[in-house]
Specification:
The complex is a heterodimer. By secondary structure, chain A is mainly α. Chain A is built from 12 helices and no strands. Chain A has one domain. Chain B has one domain. Helices cover 72% and strands 0% of the residues of chain B. The longest helix of chain B has 32 residues. The chains are: A mainly alpha, B mainly alpha. The interface between A and B is large, with 39 and 38 residues.
Chain lengths: 264, 257
Amino acid sequence: MNWIRLYIRLAGASFRAQMQYKFNFAFSSLMAFGMFGIEFLTVGTVIYKFGGVGGWGVYEVGYLFALMMFNRALYRMFASEINGFEKYLVEGLLDQLLLRPVPVLLVLMTRQFRPMLGELFLGGTILTLSLQQLDAAGQIVWYTALAKSFAAILSGAIFTFSFGVLTATVGFWTHRIDDLRRITDDATTNACYYPLTIYPGWMRMMLLTVLPMGFTSYVPALHIIRGEIGVWVLPATLLFALLLLMGALRFWRFGIAHYQSTGT
Amino acid sequence: MFSLTIARKTYAQNLQYRSANLMRTAASIIIGYVYACIWLGVSDREALGEYGAAGMLSYIAFNQACLWTVFTTNSLGIDALVRTGQISVELMRPLHFFRYMASKEWGKIGYQFLFCSVPIYLVYWLLLHIRLPEHPLTWAYTLLALFLGAYISLCMSFMIGIVALWTTESRWLWQLNWSVNVLLSGFFIPIEWLPGWLKHMSQYSPYPSIHYIPTRLYMELSGPATILISLGWAIVLTLLCFGLTRVLRRHLEVQGG
């Protein structure tokens, strides 16, 4: 309980510090909304024009995109510095954090706390639009789908966070992780904006086993909006996410015990 | 001559990070493949016009390979110079500020062409069997159009960097520009398939010169006359960059450092 109180206090301080630059905060939120909105508009235009992709319609793909947007927003909101962990290793900044009487991961999570309003607003808009259209087509009942979507977002955010921690931990040995992150985060996230049915078998398998980011959007969506799998998939996905998180935290503890400062 | 030396130095500087570059190139290959899969996914239903499914695969793959040549540094680093006050030193150098920043960027562009674009192109050529031009001259036209595309992208980054004089931060504007570029440059969708108003916006902007024109030339779907469009935009943007540098010299407020 003390940790939670401490987290709220430190994250609040970080947020207040950022709010000293109000224009920058408002501008960056607006730009994030525009940037990802254009990204969806680009692909959405193609899917709409050609009547679907891999058997999925534009609103179904919109639903996947919205789930990924929420995952990204929650991950960056609570773990922005885990995503940018390389600088702590390369510039020796981690040494200062190790001296504090608080777990390093907790300190990292309180730094650069941002509410990610642009991504959340865009995710909310696309999710609402997609559920509304799918409901009108008789494919789903919007309020049940919305409730289930919260469960999917929770497990998706845990998956994304776990991958972030796993990638950051590799840095205890390699120091440089930004380029590895491009594969474990950027490339896989990009792939999971779309239904896995468009990829060849080997890639689909990879996104469900080696780098199981497919569980963040595609697998829950198969139940929530397509009804192709039973409701059991939601608790099963959450359980898998929690197991991955436990493994990631264990790996982090192992990694930090092997940390050697760069001294600069 | 001085410009060439600066470009060579930046090239050598980038050369130090060859191994770190490998992962970035690998991620780029995967992301490009994702885009290609989307087009193969939609081609189940339609024939994809004059491109066809195989043609669209080549279109996307070639654009993804070229991406690193036309992908310039965020604001050419001008916003960081403004924030640290270093810009006052840079403006005192015995070379025009635009030429100085452009020369530095050309070194990076040259590096990225050789160590990102060419390897990505070769991987796609080997694994996806993308099409090759039938006429040898096509290579020359494509490279010229690509050179102009990189220059246009560089000019746009410079202009965004200048905005930092007023805002001290231009990262978000640069990222927004990049998103608009993906939409309007024909990087993912050939311009003729954009909805009406977006198509008009694209046609009257410099964005098609960055991807659409070089790729259409490579695929031998357009003639070399289209290079004149890129040349026209390169001239207009150069004049704008020189004009903005004049404004910059008058407006500059040196930050704390």
